[in-house]
Design a protein that fits this description.
Layout lengths: L4 E3 L5 E5 L1 H13 L3 H18 L9 H7 L1 H9 L1 E2 L4 E2 L5 H6 L1 H13 L3 H21 L3 E6 L2 E3 L2 H14 L9 H15 L4 H39 L1 H13 L8 H32 L11 H35 L4 H24 L6 H11 L10 H10 L26 H7 L10
Parallel strand pairs: 2-5
Antiparallel strand pairs: 1-2, 3-4, 5-6
Pfam families: DUF713
InterPro entries: DUF713
Keywords: Coiled coil
Length: 441
């Protein structure tokens, strides 16, 4: 840690954000796991936070909000679990109150593993923090580039791109957005007469990108629904493989692998694909500033996006209901198989969240508050809540049987329209043949 800190005359601490730290972050980002970066640099972050607390900022500015929530933002970053694609439970009340937009942008950057927009959106504020801290003598922050140091991130980016263009460095900027942004900054030093033209071009590009995203999303929705249909069509074989052991009087432990296979492919996979689809919806919402500033000409597009998302929710809801019914029929044959009831209870919990999501989606005028409520519900859908064979065994040992009696799958009651869910009797007969009606003890 001593390599990070030196001291100037008059005891003004100097902090250097070096190349190793940046490379460490990029590596952790590539792995989708930021815990390592957080752990290895926590001392540095805490010390920097101490210095920033001594810097004065104007009230109500983004800079003061960022500094007051400096550590909580990194805490949130480290709470991301790439294995479950979820955030661990931490207190985000301060972030939601003081830097809600930063929090939303941070979520998107983590979900998408695309930090370009986040970086350039907040670079100016960070550079202001660096400048004011230096002027006030609380801390002198520099950013390393090669063997030299820069006084701001903008200066670092400008010099780095200039070096590349002049051939002084061989490393090309990481992506087109980086190159485009730096080139724009170079152009602004030379000629600023084309601003309006560039703005119009950018708006046209954004419009085209939104249209392409819309087409991709529609395609993904069809793929999502097709995948759910395929899962249902394969239910017969999976139920036979899963429940055949009860007919043979085999024990749970002897068929644990098949139980795990059923949970993974019939239960977990549809929910995982559903969450991936929601991330696409988040990308669109981000283009509209999370419904903070929804242009009137985009209102129809917003309703279409919400409608598509609603259809995906309904598709998953139907799939969960299908699973619930099939499990119930197996339990009727082997009433002492408690683990089936545990799985049913788990499915109900997910279905209740989906029901709440459908009610939120049934909206007349989407707003930022509406989106926050929607996102909060989606964050309640956690893959880690799906029972594993290990957790099933533990739950069944300690379970109170009465808590799993008279389980009923929830009904949907929407405000604007009624949705009737019917089980395909022909398909149900196909799936539940006399041979497949067996359960694990």
């Amino acid at each position: 840690m001593s390599s990070f800190f030196t001291f100037f005359k008059k005891s003004v601490p100097a902090v250097k954000i070096n190349v190793e730290m940046i490379e460490n972050f990029n590596k952790c980002d590539g792995e989708g796991n930021y815990k390592k970066f957080y752990k290895e640099n926590l001392d540095f972050l805490m010390s920097l936070n101490t210095y920033l607390e001594k810097t004065s900022f104007d009230k109500g500015t983004l800079e003061i909000s960022l500094c007051k929530n400096f550590i909580p933002l990194f805490d949130y970053l480290s709470s991301w679990n790439p294995e479950s694609s979820e955030f661990e439970m931490i207190d985000t009340s301060s972030l939601e109150k003081y830097v809600p937009e930063v929090l939303e942008d941070l979520k998107y950057a983590i979900f998408s593993s695309n930090w370009t927009d986040f970086y350039f959106k907040y670079r100016s504020a960070v550079d202001t923090i660096i400048e004011l801290s230096r002027k006030q003598g609380t801390v002198d922050i520099s950013i390393q580039i090669g063997n030299n140091s820069c006084e701001s991130f903008k200066d670092r980016d400008f010099r780095r791109y200039t070096y590349y263009k002049l051939g002084n460095i061989s490393e090309k900027p990481e992506n087109r957005e980086f190159e485009s942004t730096c080139q724009d900054e170079i152009d602004s030093y030379i000629d600023d007469q084309n601003f309006e033209r560039k703005l119009e071009q950018q708006e046209a590009i954004n419009s085209k990108e939104l249209e392409e995203m819309k087409k991709k999303r529609e395609l993904k929705k069809k793929e999502f629904e097709a995948e759910l249909e395929q899962i249902q069509s394969q239910m017969k074989n999976r139920f036979i493989a899963l429940f055949e052991c009860i007919r043979l009087k085999q024990r749970f432990e002897e068929k644990e692998e098949k139980v795990a296979d059923w949970i993974q492919n019939c239960y977990k996979q549809p929910i995982k694909r559903f969450l991936e689809y929601f991330r696409d919806f988040q990308n669109v919402a981000r283009e509209w500033k999370y419904f903070k500033r929804l242009p009137s000409e985009s209102l129809q597009d917003a309703y279409e996006e919400i409608s598509i998302l609603s259809e995906c929710v309904l598709s998953l809801f139907d799939t969960l209901e299908f699973l619930f019914i099939q499990l119930g029929e197996q339990h009727d044959i082997a009433t002492d198989a408690l683990f089936i009831k545990v799985l049913q209870k788990s499915i109900i919990d997910f279905a209740l969240v989906l029901s709440s999501i459908l009610n939120i989606l049934d909206v007349n005028a989407p707003s930022h508050e509406w989106y926050k409520q929607l996102e909060k519900l989606f964050f309640m859908i956690k893959l880690s809540d799906i029972p594993t064979t290990t957790s099933l065994r533990k739950i069944c040992k300690k379970a109170v049987v009465s808590n799993y009696e008279q389980l009923e799958f929830p009904k949907i009651h929407l405000k604007s329209y009624v949705v009737i869910h019917e089980q395909d009797n022909v398909q149900a007969e196909e799936v539940c043949t006399s041979e497949s009606k067996c359960v694990i003890c």
